[in-house]
Structures are given as C-alpha cells and as structure tokens.
C-alpha cells in the first residue's frame, strides 16, 4: 500500500520480490493506496512530522512547503505525495526526472500549474542539469526565466508562477546537489518496515482484495516481504491464487509457506537470483572475495543486475559484504544455505578477507 517505481534506471528481471512495479502492480496499487495520513501504515515519525507541516499550512491558508522523500523503492513515496495533495485539497501533477531532459520541458510543466497544485517529481536525481538549475528559482521565487532566441540576441523573459508544492522522490539522496536539497522545506527518509507493520499492511490489503487470511498467514507473508509493502502485497496476491487453486481459499501459515515455496521465495525473503548469487559465491569461490563482474558471469546475469537488484538486500540482511578486494560472504550466508564455512588458509587475499569477517 506504500510503494513506488524503481528509480535506478537499471532493467530488472521479473521477480516476485523485486521492488519494481509492473503494470499489474500499478493497477492493484491504485485501489490499495491509503487516501489520507490516518490510513497510512508505518513511517510513524515521517507521518507525524508531515502532519504538522500540512496542518500548519492549512491553518495559514498557505501552500505547503516543498517536500523531499528519500528511501528505497516500494516504501510509499508516491503514496505520500498523493496524500499530501489530498490533505491540502489540491490537484496533483505527476512526472519524473528522466522525462525532463531540457529546461523547456520543465518550464512547460511549471507554467501550466494551478495555484496550490502539487507537482510530484519522481526520480528527481535523474533530472537534467539545465532543468535542475531552472528549478532552483522556481522553488524559491516562484519564477522562471524563459530564454527566447539564441546567441547575442537571446533575451530572458521572466515568467511568474503561482505558488505550488514540489514533492521530490529519490532513492539516492546523495546524488542531489546541495543547492537543490536545501530548497526543500521538509525532508524525510523512508525506512524499511518492521514485520508487525507489514502484517497490518497484509491484513488491510487482504480485506480490500476480499481475501480471507488468518494472523499466522499474514505473519508468514510479512516475514518474507523484505521490509517493503509493495512486495508484501505482491506476495499476498500470489498466495491468494495458490489458496484458491490448491486449498479452500483461506490463507493460513501452511498455505502461505507452500505457496511461496512454489514461487521460490524462502523464509528470509530470498528468491532464485539471491540464492544463485550466494551459492556461486560460496560454492565456486569459497566465500570470496570475488569481483562483481566475475560473480555476475557465474550466475549468468548482467553486472548491473547483480549490483542493483540482488546485492542491496543481501548486504542489508548481513549475508554479503562489499570489500575493497571484492564481494565476500558472511558467516550468516553459510548458515542460511546450510553450508560449513572453510577454515581460513594461511596467507592470500581470500583468507585475509574471510578472517576479517569471521573474526579470526
């Protein structure tokens, strides 16, 4: 119920636990999205802070400050932008950084905004530099300079803009230049969800989808959702399908576990690609270190796919470490796959990196 498109720009495989929203996800999400902050589950601090910002703006009869939302895909940045518009009683315009390649593209959007309108700019870190520089003045002074003509005869025509609220979303806040980041009146970082929060997400979505589910079944799905509501909803839909075909339609713990086993999502949320990376690292390279390109070849995937799609979750789960000498498996990775880690051999880069991780 709180999820967004993937802003990495890296083509990703069709994965049940992937953060990318496909067309089916987008259609279902539209029906499941909460409509106000009261319905929004999780992100307690962000909700509390944002509620104060919006209530104060409404009390003043003013446009809300510009908002920057950062965090991993699928955590609710798009949903919050829609809630901001709904709470302010304003229309919302949605676009993305890659769609704005020229300053003229941005000027056309800004000049058509209504007073108080919310402009949601997804993947804001991927906007072109000329458009980014135009945005500085638009955010601060509600004005843009439109350049007419070329060369020595070019002139800048100032264009006044109605007050608006910009909501920017990014998974890479560090790529935003300080002048842009400093112009946001409110910034928030979206955290991964705790299992109990995801259980509430699953129960709410099950109710909206008319799926009968017991608490144990919801807990099983939540525990395999990688801390991401979008993934929880996707797993719920696949478990629902299994329950309808293989059982009586009621989602229990056993039904959820059996369904997710069919879809190769294990108890920790790892899927086929995640396990393939770990198995190659452990069985072919003795736990590492190994270079990213070599590891990608071993699993038959592109380097970018391994780095952008599989590694972030494996690192966050403490199953893989990125070191200057390459990727190294942690003791938890050996335990998760039921393998025994080798004793560190004397000398060599590999044994040194393993000694660092195993505490030898």
UniProtKB/TrEMBL annotation:
Low complexity compositional bias, start-end: 341-353
InterPro entries: AAA+_ATPase (IPR003593), AAA_lid_4 (IPR041445), DNA_helicase_Holl-junc_RuvB (IPR004605), P-loop_NTPase (IPR027417), RuvB-like_N (IPR008824), RuvB_wg_C (IPR008823), WH-like_DNA-bd_sf (IPR036388), WH_DNA-bd_sf (IPR036390)
Biological process annotations from GO: DNA recombination; DNA repair
GO cellular component: cytoplasm; Holliday junction resolvase complex
Reaction catalysis annotation: ATP + H2O = ADP + phosphate + H(+)
Positions with a binding annotation for ATP: 32-33, 74, 77-79, 140-142, 183, 193, 230
Domain named AAA+ ATPase: residues: 63-194
EC number annotated for this UniProt entry: 3.6.4.-
Keywords: ATP-binding, Cytoplasm, DNA damage, DNA recombination, DNA repair, DNA-binding, Helicase, Hydrolase, Nucleotide-binding
Locations listed in the record: Cytoplasm
Region (Large ATPase domain (RuvB-L)): 13-193
Enzyme class, broadest EC rank: hydrolase
Pfam family, one: WHD_RuvB
Region (Small ATPAse domain (RuvB-S)): 194-264
HAMAP family membership: DNA_HJ_migration_RuvB
Subunit structure: Homohexamer. Forms an RuvA(8)-RuvB(12)-Holliday junction (HJ) complex. HJ DNA is sandwiched between 2 RuvA tetramers; dsDNA enters through RuvA and exits via RuvB. An RuvB hexamer assembles on each DNA strand where it exits the tetramer. Each RuvB hexamer is contacted by two RuvA subunits (via domain III) on 2 adjacent RuvB subunits; this complex drives branch migration. In the full resolvosome a probable DNA-RuvA(4)-RuvB(12)-RuvC(2) complex forms which resolves the HJ.
The family this protein is said to belong to: Belongs to the RuvB family.
Comment, domains: Has 3 domains, the large (RuvB-L) and small ATPase (RuvB-S) domains and the C-terminal head (RuvB-H) domain. The head domain binds DNA, while the ATPase domains jointly bind ATP, ADP or are empty depending on the state of the subunit in the translocation cycle. During a single DNA translocation step the structure of each domain remains the same, but their relative positions change.
Function, as annotated: The RuvA-RuvB-RuvC complex processes Holliday junction (HJ) DNA during genetic recombination and DNA repair, while the RuvA-RuvB complex plays an important role in the rescue of blocked DNA replication forks via replication fork reversal (RFR). RuvA specifically binds to HJ cruciform DNA, conferring on it an open structure. The RuvB hexamer acts as an ATP-dependent pump, pulling dsDNA into and through the RuvAB complex. RuvB forms 2 homohexamers on either side of HJ DNA bound by 1 or 2 RuvA tetramers; 4 subunits per hexamer contact DNA at a time.
NCBIfam families in alphabetical order: PRK00080.1, ruvB
Record-given protein name: Holliday junction branch migration complex subunit RuvB
Species assigned in the record: Streptomyces dangxiongensis
């Amino acid at each position: 119920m709180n999820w967004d498109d993937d802003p990495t720009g890296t083509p990703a495989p069709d994965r049940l636990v992937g953060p990318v929203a496909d067309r089916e996800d987008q259609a279902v999400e539209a029906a499941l999205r909460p409509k106000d902050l009261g319905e929004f589950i999780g992100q307690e601090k962000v909700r509390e802070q944002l509620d104060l910002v919006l209530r104060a703006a409404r009390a003043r009869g003013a446009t809300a400050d510009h908002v920057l939302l950062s965090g991993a895909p699928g955590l609710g940045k798009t949903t919050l932008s829609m809630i901001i518009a709904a709470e302010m009683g304003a229309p919302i315009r949605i676009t993305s950084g890659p769609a704005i390649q020229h300053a003229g593209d941005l000027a056309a959007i800004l000049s058509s905004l209504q007073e108080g309108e919310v402009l949601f700019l997804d993947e804001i870190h991927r906007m072109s530099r000329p458009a980014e520089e135009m945005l500085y003045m638009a955010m601060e002074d509600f004005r843009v300079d439109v350049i007419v003509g070329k060369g020595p005869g070019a002139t800048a025509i100032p264009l006044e803009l109605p007050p608006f609220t910009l909501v920017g979303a990014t998974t890479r806040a560090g790529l935003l230049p300080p002048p842009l980041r400093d112009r946001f009146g409110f910034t928030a970082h979206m955290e991964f969800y705790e299992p109990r929060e995801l259980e509430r997400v699953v129960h709410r979505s099950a109710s909206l989808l008319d799926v009968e589910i017991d608490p144990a079944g919801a807990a099983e799905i939540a525990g395999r959702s990688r801390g991401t509501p979008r993934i929880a909803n996707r797993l719920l839909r696949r478990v629902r399908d299994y329950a309808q075909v293989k059982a009586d339609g009621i989602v229990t713990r056993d039904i959820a576990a059996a369904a997710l086993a069919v879809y190769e999502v294990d108890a920790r949320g790892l899927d086929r690609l995640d396990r393939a990376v770990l198995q190659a690292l452990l069985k072919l390279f003795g736990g590492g270190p190994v270079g990213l390109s070599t590891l990608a070849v071993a699993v038959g995937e592109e380097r970018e796919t391994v780095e952008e799609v599989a590694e972030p979750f494996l690192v966050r789960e403490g199953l893989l470490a990125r070191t200057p000498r390459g990727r190294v498996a942690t003791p938890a990775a050996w335990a998760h796959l039921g393998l025994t880690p080798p004793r560190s051999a004397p000398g060599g880069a590999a044994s040194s990196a393993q000694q660092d991780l195993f505490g030898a």
